[in-house]
Amino acid sequence: MPAGDSAAHEASRQLALAAAHERAAADARATASRYGVASATEQRTAAALAPLAAAGYHLLADRQWPGSRRAQVDMVVVGPAGVFVVDTKAWADVTIAGDRIHRGQDDVTDELMALADLAYRTEGELAEVGLAPGEVHAVAVLAGRTGVDERVGPVQVVGDRDVLRQIARRGARLGPRQVDAVLARCLEWFGQVGDPAPVSTTLPEPVLPAPRGPVLLADDAPDGSDASAAVVPEQRSAPDGPEPLLTDSEVHQAMLEGLMAAPVEEWMAFLHPAQARVVRRSYNGPARIRGAAGTGKTVVGLHRAAYLARTRQGKVLVTTYIRTLPDVLRQQLTRLAPDVVDRVEFAGVHETAKRILDERGVTHRIDGKQIASAWTAAWGKVAGGSVIDTDRHEQDYWHEEVSYVIKGRGLTRWEQYADLPRLGRRHRLGPHQRRVVWELYEAYDRELRDRGVHDFADQIALAEAELRREPPTDRYTAVVVDEAQDLTCMMIRMMHAFVGDAPDGLTLVGDGQQTIYPGGFTLAEAGVSVAGRGTVLDVNYRNTREILQFASMLVRDDEFADIEGATARGDRPAEVPRTGPKPVYVRCASEADRQRRMVLRVHEVVAEVGTNFGDVGVLSLSRRGVEAATEALKKAGVPVVNLEKYDGVPVNRVKVGTVKRAKGLEFKQVLVVDPYASWLTEKVEDLDDVDRERRDFRLRELYVAMTRARDGLWVAAI
Ligand SMILES: Nc1ncnc2c1ncn2[C@@H]1O[C@H](COP(=O)(O)OP(=O)(O)OP(=O)(O)O)[C@@H](O)[C@H]1O
Question: Which part of the chain is the UvrD-like helicase ATP-binding domain (predicted)?
Fold first, then answer.
């Protein structure tokens, strides 16, 4: 190569190197400016949040963004109000509308979604120590802004002057031990930032001159985009540190709001890791959560409803057979997850059916008196004096056969009933008896039509047919059924029709052991499969070991028809952590004696520190028992409320009601006030099918009553 050529080559090589240096220099300058702006704005957020440190909060600044080598999380706040993953944005000209956020003309929603994704992954990580998903929050702080309280999907967007208040106002949801457990996990999950940002070219490390002063705002916004939009005058920090964002009285006010926030119960924010996992688990179709009494099924169902409402578009329905229970559950969710309570609908199964029929203009008329008269007329015409009119069964038995076994399944043809396995009904019916039952059903149906009325089973059948005729589009994104064992086959079908087999659409929560209505069926009959999508909870949080032991004796040999098919024995909890005094069983000489002792017992338990009238439940298997107890308590000056009227709003009155109404509820002290001693002592071997069936249901009902008790149980028999 000629000498001139080699010189030219070297010159161009040097020029190329110089260009590479210039590019690297430009990159490094841009990075430096990002750090500069970020530190200024983040410092302001940190300063705004600093007062939390005095109230048991931990502020983790500049931690690693899990899963990324380069990115950092500005701030993670861990404390009594939960976990807050905070990202500060020096954005100007921000508009938020319809779940999207814009900077000027640019849609920057995706930038917040990265934060949402991090919060979601953090939720999963912290579920492993039991933190409920609703306690992890993604918060985007707009630097230099005030009075902002918006949502972009799961991300809360607030001004830097608002962020302290937004966090503190949630109050104390976690206790110190729980905060410690969550903090320990967070310290691992959000690693320390130790290494400098990686150098992106293979150029020698530049030797930097010693800094001459603090870094001020540079040309670019933290994310490298248009600086003019990002610079907000208030953000500029003075050379000697950021000015305080909030006055002392504003800080004081924010912290006070937190102190005044209604306290939550432990399970509202902190669960057993197994529970927390089920709350977030994704099921590829209908799922079932089961477990013995008191294992937190309702708790998990509620958290799951909140979780699904938070993570999906559309509404979630929480429903039960018992009309009054949804009101109680709504009250609980209002405290558990106030952010989503307006996206969760609570309604009994019948109320839901009625809404559908009303909305779709389907006429139906329910009239209790007419229904009763239709039944009486049908019985008189077909069944009175027939092979089913014996002294073995009350008419109620046949009424239940028609309402639950036949209509509960939506049977309309004799052939469907002729050889139907009547799950859970021990008394076998001969062909002749079945025929008469069917004729009774036909007659009853005619009588109803003649009167122009429908009964409650018709209401469900009509709604189910209507939903099948025109499937609802997006009415509910998910349906959670609590106490699912109480629903009939048609009710399950109706609920299934809302969501079909969509992932996480239908969640059935229940315990077959607590089945107290006849008409057992399998989910296969309802066209629902939960195969491979079942979870069993097995820690009893409610009862003391003593209470559970006592109650469990009643159902030790019980077998029931489980909705997944086959005969089942009850789930037994693996753990019962609480202990307490032995239940009290008293034999009374007469009804009057029982009433007298009941009043004494109520006075005795409310004399204990920490127990009020409102913590006491007086439960009876019959309405008559409820009336008698109510009268006796009122006479003794004890304030009472009937469970039919109880909606979960705390009230300092003794709650009196039937066991059916107490489903899903609990009380510190339970008094069971109408059993006969013979119920507890009769031997299965001495009973025929009819009496055995009666006994099974009765004992299960007593079991439900007794397992409502948290601390104390008193059972009075004659
Ligand atoms: N992780 C938990 N920590 C503390 N308490 C809990 C937890 N989970 C549930 N509990 C409490 O245990 C009790 C029973 O919970 P829940 O009512 O959800 O049980 P369940 O399985 O639905 O009961 P049942 O079937 O008998 O109605 C409630 O007082 C609830 O607050």
Answer: 270-544
What b/e string do you get for 628-655 counting C-beta neighbours within 10 Å, with b at 16 or more? bbbebbeeeebebbbbeebebeeeebbb
CB atoms within 10 A of CB 54: 9
Three-class secondary structure assignment of 207-273: CCCCCCCCCCCCCCCCCCCCHHHHCCHHHCCECCECCCCCCHHHHHHHHHHHHHCCCCCHHHHECCH
Separation CA 491–CA 481 (nearest Å)? 10
Closest ligand 1 atom to the C-alpha of 302? 18
Q: Indicate the DSSP class of residue 614.
A: G
Ligand 1 within 6 A of CB of 498: no
Ligand 1 atom 16, closest CA: 296
Distance 295 CA to ligand 1 centre (A): 5
Residue 244 has a pLDDT of 65
Cα 164 → chain centroid: 28
CA of 565 to the centre of ligand 1 (A): 26
Task: State which amino acid sits at residue 313.
Answer: Q
Enclosing H/E stretch for 672 = strand 667-672
> Nearest to residue 653, comparing CAs of 695, 601, 602?
602
Please indicate whether residue 166, judged by its CB atom, sits closer than 6 Å to ligand 1: no
Q: Which atom of ligand 1 is nearest to the CA of 299?
A: 18
pLDDT of residue 230: 32
pTM above 0.90?
no
In sequence order, which residues have a C-beta less than 8 Å from that of residue 87 and are 6 or more positions away?
Answer: 73, 74, 75, 115, 138, 139, 140, 141
C-alpha dihedral (110, 115, 118, 120), degrees to nearest 10? -80
Residues 336 and 334: their CA atoms lie apart, in Å, by 6
Is residue 667 in contact with ligand 1, taking CB distance under 6 Å? no
* Rounded-to-integer distance, Cα 595 and Cα 605, Å: 16
Count of all residues that appear for the chain in the document? 718
Residue ranges in the chain modelled with pLDDT below 70 = 1-5, 17, 20-21, 24-25, 27-39, 194-244, 558, 561, 565-568
| Coil, strand or helix at 611 | coil
Dist. CA 666 → ligand 1 center (Å): 9
